[in-house]
## 1
Amino acid sequence: MLYATLEGLKRFKIPHNFEVVSIISLYAQWIREGRLKLDPSWNTEGLKFTVQDPCKLVRQSLGDPVADDLRFVIKQVCGEENFVDVWPNKSNNYCCGGGGGALQAGFTDNRRKHGRMKFDQLHATGADVVITPCHNCHTQVKDICAHYGGKWQTTHLWNWIVKALVR
Amino acid sequence: MPKGSVLVVGGGIAGVQAALDLANSGFLVHLVEKTAAIGGKMSQLDKTFPTNDCSACILSPKLVECGRHRNINLLTLSDLISLDGEPGSFRAVVRQRPRYVHPAKCIACGLCAEKCPKKVANDFNMGIGKRKAAYLSYPQAVPLKYAIDPAHCIWINRPGRCGICAKECPSGAINFDEKVQEHALEVGSVVLSLGFSRFNPSGLDFTGYGRLPNVVTSMEFERLLSPSGPSKGHLERPSDGREPKKIAWLQCVGSRDINRAGHPYCSSVCCMFALKQSIMAMEHAHGDLASSIFFMDMRTHGKGFENYYSRARDQGVRFHRARVHSVIPAEAEGDLKIRYVNEDGRVNFEEYDMVVLSTGLQPYKQTLELAAMLGLELDADNFLKTDSFNPVATSRPGIFVCGAASEPKDIPQSVMEASAAAVEAGRILAPARWTETISKHYPLERDIHAAPPRIGVFVCHCGINIASVVDVAALAAYAGTDPKAFADPTTGKELALAQYGQGADIIFHASGNTGKGVFNAVSPSSRKPCATRA
């Protein structure tokens, strides 16, 4: 939605009086302003978190600033020391291999073969949780995790914000 | 009658060579340098290809000659801000920024830098390690005068807060009130030796530069190899100080890349300096190091260069014709993994301790500004435009160019062009040769064959090397007590040698007025341990 809207506004030079921002940047802003209070002390077992940078969100539209915000929010959720970054990352991260209709188009073996690279990269972090703030990435990462025998949990960001929320 | 003087802008090796050639052929030269010392990029190099000569050993004599040449007016910390007129008669305005250290008073003792409390990144060492806000760019700097960095000096930014250097300076050379000066110069022609800047690979995020400490640029690596560098010539990698055992060089970083670097041209020197660095690194490690070069084409086009390439191959440097996809951290802390595609189109991985990016050459931003100000045409890559059959002439008559400002080139070619530009700049001023120069005047010879020999003893007492251990005034008084001693050359020499043994730093004694003389002179720094012991 976000990428398509942005791209449409840009390509067809549609005049508009609004700004397109990601909810992730809003989370980060609210945390910085103290309006959203998170406490990582729930993470007593020291669950390690890592992240997938969705192409449409980061490389193709909002760039490194939103990737930095994403990391900021995750660190607020899980604790600074429990975040393990992938490499390459941010605008340079690997594609998950599930977008562009690949998940829906059949050719499952090809899609999983492509996803092997993503699996190896995520597996190398040793993380227990992979945050995927994109629906395509989520389905693909979850699928390759199961297919190649990964042990991590694949989730969106908001579930963990709920977990860490100071009520 | 044209003017008999020439303006040379840029004090790197090309500018220095052009200035020396012009000054030695009868022209007064104003040499304008933007930093506090001449020497340019060459002064930062450890060795030069294809001979592996020590760069400073070749450069320093030229710099010293340039610094003390009576017909070279050296203007450091200066920029050319305007130029009017025509060939034979230009009027240039040069703006000189304050050094805050009086060059005639500064004895380069280094106390100001030693006591200065403000540490800043050492730009001469490419930001590796620290220097002080009061600094000497590098040990062989010409002029050998300290300078104060106005961007970082505490006093300049908050007057009254520091001023330690002014209190400590034994010769009272520090002057915070120094102002910007403008020099109006009448010159006949202009030589631009503006040099090049290095491509900054921070934007090429796949290289990991700026995020992975063991990915360095070629110039940073050069400083790591150099004895005057941050690790005193002991090769160690930045992240943990460990000696690297396996290093990769990635070629064409910022060259032949229109996709992300915007530079379609070949930088011409990177293949050679990568070969040089790979060989030097192996020598540093006494053979216990594996060097690999990832390249598109090895372009070793100069005299003796292909032999250099073959020698590197014989010495065990490995060459991969490959496209590098990315540099990512390997499992071991600080190590790096290169993902590349080889000639068969297959993806490969290989791990290294360090990665050196052979970054390309590009024009300075200031070159574009200067070219716009002077009305000079640029080529498609923003280098100063020249013509194949007139390779040192710019598009404006009377203004010449040499070195890497017109296209990337190595030191031998830059020096060649410098001499060519000097000849071209001097040719149009030929009638005015020797009109503005100062020539040497020697005293008239006298007949002294019947006079008694006299010996002078000179003890250097500038700074604290000697003055802190020898009472120079008392020594001078003592030496004057027995006039007979100085009528007798043997006793005189014994007396002089005795002072030398007691720790005098420089003594040169000459049998004056006899027509025969003996001079003994030593470098102050080499005598320092001796003087401290005495």
## 2
Amino acid sequence: MAQANQPLIVVDNLCKSFEQGEVLNHISISIREGDLVSVIGPSGCGKSTFLRCLNCLEILDSGTISIAGVTVSRNGPGETITDDLLDKAHLLRQEVGLVFQIFNLFPHKSVLENIMLAPMVVKKESREQAEENAVRLLKKVGLEDCIHRDPATLSGGQKQRAAIARALAMNPKVMLYDEPTSALDPELVKEVLQVMRDLDAEGMTQIVVTHEMRFARKASDYIVFMDKGEIVEVDDGDILFSNPKNERTREFLRHFEGDAL
Amino acid sequence: MRRTLTILGLVLALAFAFAPVALAEQNELRWGGDTEGGAPYMFQDPKDTTRVIGYEVEMIEAIAKKLGRKPVFVQNGWDNLIPGLQRKLYDVTLDGLEITPEHKQEVNFSIPYYATFLQLAVRRDNKTIESLEDCRGKVVGTLKQAYSQQVLEEFGGIEVRTYEDEINAYSDLANGRLDATLFDAPIAVFYAGFNPDIKFVGPEIGRMEYGIAVRKEDKELLKDINGALVALRDSGELRRIYDRWNLWSPMMAKEFNDYSPRTVDAVMFNEWAELQKPEFTFQDRMKRYVSFMPVLGRAAVTTMKVSIVAMILAMAFGFVLAVARVFGPSFLSRMAVAYIETIRGTPVLIQLFFIFYGLPNIGIKLSPFVAGAVGLGLNYAAYEAENYRAGLISVPKAQMEGALALAMTRWQALRHVVIPQAFRLVLPPVTNDFISLLKDSSLVSVITMVDLTKAYGQLATTYYDYFGTGIIVAVIYLLLGLPFVRLARWAEGRLAKVGNMARIENESTEELIASKDGVL
């Protein structure tokens, strides 16, 4: 488990609206290096958008996001998105890995090439260096037997582990997961969560948007509960699940009462 | 991006390398004509298809000799002989061009070098048609844009069918599609005179004079040519040319005021007559087809060259258009759409005319090859752009996001992730387009190039053989297209694989939607 380190991620008054309305409403949170944080909340509460903003796949409307020394800020949706802002966003992405619920592996490349591509293109690593690194990461996520296969031939769990290895190949300081197990058959969920547990043990800072309540409760350092674009409650898993302070949290958790948490 | 531009530059450089350096040299007399026009004017020598013969060829060569200039033949479609002259593709043009008030508005004519009339022809069993008057209510075929068409239309009450060439008109007459035909007398004699199913009827109709066309501003050249024509007439040389081709007539005797008997035999006419004899063995025929090969081979190279350069241009420019349309800022995207819609909405033939005959008006003068390749290339670029666009938008957006999330720039994501997947998707339609471009390239014959289709027309009019020659040319087109058909099939095989992957990804999306509903 992580020590009480410096905050690696500082989010201050993050707001984001789409045409349909406000999705994120003044989100502020600090996350320390090495933390494993689960974000839970009802569908449409803005948790995925929050993650996409952290990676700058969505450019924030206003507020400040600061990750590993790179700061992106904007004063409102009216402010033009400058090249400088986009450059910052690009820098920030190099520090932040993002794993999608449907994997987004590149179907025209082998598993190995999927992992080698970004380091070679973005970081200009040599083929040898990228390959060595990719093989090491594939071993780490237990895919050493799948190196030369087409992504299409992998099971869902294998695909997601390959996607994690691909994100790790950029050597990020933070890993973000957007419902990483939602597209998986139940028996394949465990192998993906195990990879995340292993990374936590190594001290990786991770934020997981998830519906796996058991994982959220047992594995995370703390849980963020979001609803209607706001952070409602941040607390230790055991406390949040057994004794939620907020009415909205209680309401949400009632759906999971039957599950063995 | 830079590499794409480099390739584009290279293609253009290559294209311009083919352009002739100087169009006219001082000591040459460049003359334009259409060998598809046929006998006896100008046509390919049946004994050596690389040579052009005809009484007009002999005449213009005699004129050039008188002027001390070297005659150089320039091929152009008959309809475009005068636009080609104005565009300075050649110094003079002739090919049975009638001296008419309409033509005289565009160019100057020499004194008439030949006078003739129109000849009505019907099927041998026809007893009802003996004059134009009898043609009222009947179907009559003639040559497109010729004086004869004008005569028929002004006469009134006649259903006029126009033809690109005389052979098809006469075979339609013989097989009953037409009731009669009206052609210049020399054409009638050479193309229908040997046909046992056809007879000539009625009096001489109208009077037409052929002249050599010269640009309005070339007053000196016109004077020189008239001088040479008078000299050739007075020395009897012109008469001897007409006699060799059996073209001397009472009308000409009156015109030249020369009633003396002939001094040379109709050797050229007799050679032509020899060819028209039906007793022609299979072996003779095969031998003749083999003799076509040099001409068809050269034409096939032209077709291939212009198609390949056009296709490279179309693929490169189409790619730029597609990326601009899909990923560019809105003004670029709008410009790309405007270009694509304009080009797709207008006929490629008109685009070629515009580029070749129109652009010189604003000082842009392209060689036939460059104009053809650029014209077809710019046209097909619009279609390729749409192919690419379909490919680009069928790559799931998630692929772009996946790449961006790995800190690739937008261009890197396009280059390494989106475009390679789109490329596999569009390979089959792009190859199909190349095959259709190969065929559309026949349009370059309107801008003076001799491609396969043009060569086909020339050989067919020379030998009166659209059938056998047609089969040979069709086979050549098939052979040229074959490698690309194979490429398309191979690409489809590859595509099946990528398609499967896309389907698997989609399925998991569907499952995801289903499972989400289940969870909450």
